[in-house]
Amino acid sequence: MELIIYLLIGAMAGFAAGLFGVGGGLIIVPILYIVFTQLHYDPSVIMHLAVGTSLATIIVTSISSVTAHHKRGAVMWDVFRNLAPGLALGAFLGAGIADYLSGQGLQLLIGFFALWVAYTMFNGASKAVDPSHHLPSRAMQILAGGGIGVASAIFGIGGGSLTVPYLSRHGVVIQKAVATSAAGGLPIAIAGALGFMWFGSNTEAEIPHSIGYVHIYAFIGISVMSFMTAKLGAKVAHKLSPAMLKRCFACLLATVGSYFIYQGFSTFF
């Protein structure tokens, strides 16, 4: 029964990732939080387990996504090479930072982040890219990658919510920004997942079927289904208005963010 639940989560996350053009991390994390809570896992590590497992599943979806984008020639590999070192190092450090945060603190951070992404996505749904802007130097790109990597690991995402706006702000057309962001999700996911495994191995909490903060059954179930349904979501997306899709996803993120903020603050009262 537990594996069936993870397969359903993967189906929803993969479809949403393909539909909205954003990784499924911000969908996987809240659903896993609810599932792990219902399974009566230690409350102090539930958020860490949800985030770590989310990052592990993004390894698989990133490979699927970047392969499709590469075939269309949309990945800017020179930009990826500049961002990748910072993304990987930042993601590992982000996992370490998340390990020091309490479950409630992690909830609040992810909640406010989801609201911020919802706000920027809703307001920027119809904005065009300014081609007069250019990417900064290689050193600045590496530094930006580090910041994106740290935040992505803490929030359990592949970085698309941060990398796409960063590239778009510097004059990269949206198709290439999304494709390059998909490639950048791979070093984030690998380094972040390894970090959550490493730092989670020291926890005193009993977590069944897991390596550190990565739940193996959830990883397998979600990865298998999301790999298949992402393509279906992408097909549906091409038939709908991109601006409307972004606004719908922004509303979903606002709901997720409000839920986590409520959960985080409720423990203090």
From TrEMBL:
Keywords: Cell membrane, Membrane, Transmembrane, Transmembrane helix. It is found in: Cell membrane; Membrane. Its main location: membrane. Coiled coil: none annotated. It is a multi-pass membrane protein. The chain crosses the membrane at residues 6-33, 45-67, 105-122, 142-167, 179-199, 211-232, 244-262. GO terms for cellular component: plasma membrane. It comes from the Bacteria. InterPro entries: TM_pro_TauE-like. Belongs to the 4-toluene sulfonate uptake permease (TSUP) (TC 2.A.102) family. PANTHER family: MEMBRANE TRANSPORTER PROTEIN HI_0806-RELATED (PTHR43483). This is Probable membrane transporter protein. It comes from Acinetobacter kookii. The lineage of its organism: Bacteria, Pseudomonadati, Pseudomonadota, Gammaproteobacteria, Moraxellales.
